[in-house]
């Protein structure tokens, strides 16, 4: 749990994380986006793994996050645009 929310492990999602010791910042680079996170109330580093709420990751990746109350499952999905 991170700040009362279910947390997801970045490495467990298959995303590579690099820890910048000097800046105390974790950097993930999905598809060249180069997103950085600082350990705070929402983001935790535990045994070299970063955990953060799915909502926080979804916001940074600009991906909607949803909740299915029937299965108690959180999910994040990609919205595709169709160009003419």
What is the topology?
Layout: E1 7-9, E2 17-20, E3 25-28, E4 35-38, E5 44-46, E6 49-53, H1 54-61, E7 65-68, E8 73-76
Antiparallel strand pairs: 1-6, 2-3, 3-4, 5-6, 7-8
Low-confidence stretches: none
- Helix and strand run: EEEEEEHEE
**Oligomer status:** single chain
Spatial strand sequence of the major β-sheet: 1-6-5
Largest sheet: 3 strands, antiparallel
Number of alpha- plus pi-helical segments: 1
What is the distance, rounded to the nearest whole angstrom, between the alpha carbons of the first and last residues? 43 Å
How confident is the prediction overall: mean pLDDT?
75
Percent of residues in helical segments?
A: under 10%
Q: Would you kindly provide a written description of the structure presented here, covering whatever features stand out?
A:
- The protein has 84 residues and is mainly beta.
- It has one domain.
- Helix content is 10%, strand content 37%.
- It has one helix and eight strands.
- It has one helix spanning 54-61; strands at 7-9, 17-20, 25-28, 35-38, 44-46, 49-53, 65-68, 73-76.
- It has a three-stranded antiparallel sheet. Strands 2-3-4 form a three-stranded antiparallel sheet, with no helix packed on it.
- A hairpin with a 2-residue loop joins strand 5 and strand 6.
- The longest helix has 8 residues, at 54-61.
- The relative contact order is 0.20.
């Amino acid at each position: 749990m991170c700040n009362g929310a279910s947390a997801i492990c970045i490495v467990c999602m298959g995303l590579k994380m690099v820890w910048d010791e000097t800046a105390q910042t974790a950097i993930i680079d999905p598809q060249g986006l180069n997103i950085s996170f600082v350990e705070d109330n929402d983001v935790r580093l535990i045994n070299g793994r970063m955990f953060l709420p799915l909502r926080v990751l979804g916001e940074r990746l600009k991906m909607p996050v949803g909740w299915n109350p029937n299965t108690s499952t959180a999910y994040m999905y990609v919205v595709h645009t169709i160009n003419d």
